[in-house]
Design brief:
Blueprint lengths: L1 H8 L7 H23 L1 H5 L6 H31 L6 H24 L2 H27 L6 H25 L8 H36 L7 H18 L5 H27 L8 H26 L4 H36 L17 H24 L2 H26 L5
């Protein structure tokens, strides 16, 4: 049970407000991002992913939903993952504030065509990323047992600094900069993949290495594929981050990153195969759907990225598949982490003194299963609509996705308000 792991961390467990504020902001971004997809449906159907309003919506998912969720998860589960909580909890509150303001300014600036606001947002995001990276690095420096999760998070801390550097370069080149056409596409692609491979996927591998076995009650699974995933993903992101090198370097980096994703998928499949809990709950079903989507993204990547700007539809579909996979994986973990967080802080201390609900009883699994279907079908329809160029399909799928995101936010908000009667 996860309770044992967290309880063992003792005083390092953070106050619920710290991860809670991250999760709340992330869910708001998830809903707003899904609604935004419906507004830019025509642009997506034409493959116009580079339009500022589309970029604004995309960043509601990448920065507002996925990255904020990752920061919140690390705030809560570092004691489990590496045996020590964040070095400075107050600094995590500060970086959270900078992050939220940065996301808001960046998205508003892109949507309204105000470069100055975009720059303010970029500066706030850079400060948030670097601040969290320093906090994470200071935490990891004091850890003696340095296993797979430790190395994965160390790599992510490095790329948390590299990623905003690319973002600032792009923001400075919005109006009349030197990056145009193919060169701008190359920088955008590098920026996106350094962030996804070097930050998001490394954290996913490192944290899932501890959380998936807990949530699935999986024991005895080999962990070699996970170690390979960390090494390959880090190497791929490092090559992509280099300011020198051409197509060959990027091809090698892409191959390393793809191999790292495949290794992660093998590791995750091994955990699922060795699970003792045969029934898969809604959260783990969503996570599994995200893993399947990640496999599809790896298959699409070589063709989509090699064609680049010559096939906007395929390129847009690839990014939709990739971000959808990550979103489903994150959404699944929200269904696991938030109920546990509420139970541990609100009901755990009462165990043995009165009857308390089980974690699974804090919300309706039936509603969560329906919600998971909405989210998965919404993303699938979105990808099909973009690839076929059907704006109405994209819009309908976006509405389904927005409904699913809203249901998840409502369910988890109700969980957060649960108390002993």
């Amino acid at each position: 049970m996860p309770v044992v792991g967290v309880a063992a961390a003792g005083a390092d467990v953070p106050a619920p407000a710290l991860p809670g504020e991250h999760f709340a902001a992330a869910l708001v971004s998830f809903v707003l991002g899904a609604l935004g997809l419906a507004l830019v449906a025509s642009d997506l159907a034409r493959g116009l992913f580079f339009l500022p309003r589309v970029v604004a919506v995309v960043h509601l998912f990448t920065l507002g939903w996925i990255v904020t969720s990752i920061f919140g998860a690390l705030c809560q589960f570092l004691p489990v993952a590496v045996g020590r909580g964040l070095r400075w909890a107050w600094a995590a509150h500060v970086s959270f504030a900078a992050h939220v303001v940065g996301v808001g300014c960046f998205v508003a600036g892109m949507a309204s065509g105000r470069p100055a606001l975009v720059l303010v947002g970029s500066a706030g995001l850079a400060a948030a990323f670097v601040g969290f990276a320093v906090n994470l690095a200071a935490t990891l420096a004091g850890v003696r047992e340095r296993g797979l999760t430790w190395w994965a998070l160390c790599g992510a801390a490095i790329f948390l600094v590299v990623t905003p550097a690319y973002g600032v370069v792009l923001a400075l080149n919005l109006d009349g900069g030197q990056l145009v056409g193919a060169s701008r596409f190359t920088v955008v692609a590098a920026h996106a993949h350094v962030a996804i491979v070097g930050v998001v996927l490394l954290v996913m591998v490192g944290v899932a290495h501890r959380l998936l076995p807990m949530f699935l009650l999986s024991h005895g699974a080999s962990e070699r594929a996970g170690a390979a995933a960390v090494a390959l993903l880090f190497s791929g992101a490092a090559l992509l981050a280099l300011p020198v090198g051409g197509g060959v370097t990027h091809a090698v980096a892409g191959a390393l990153a793809a191999a790292g994703v495949v290794a992660f998928l093998i590791q995750a499949a091994t955990f699922f195969r060795h699970r003792r809990r045969k029934a898969i709950d809604p959260g783990m079903r969503l996570a599994a759907a995200g893993l399947i989507g990640l496999a599809a993204a790896v298959a699409l990547a070589p063709l989509a990225l090699s064609r680049g700007l010559s096939d906007f539809g395929l390129l847009s579909t690839y990014f939709a598949v990739l971000l959808g996979a990550l979103s489903l994986f994150v959404a699944g973990h929200h269904y696991k982490i938030i109920p546990f967080l509420v139970w541990y802080h609100r009901f755990g201390p009462l165990v043995g003194t009165r009857k308390v609900p089980r974690i699974a009883e804090l919300y309706s699994e039936r509603v969560a299963h329906v919600d998971g279907a909405l989210l998965a079908l919404g993303w699938l329809g979105l990808c099909v609509g973009i690839y076929t160029g059907q704006a109405e399909v994209v819009r309908g799928a976006a509405v389904a996705l927005a409904l699913g995101a809203a249901v998840e936010a409502i369910v988890l908000a109700r969980v957060a308000r649960r108390r002993i009667a």
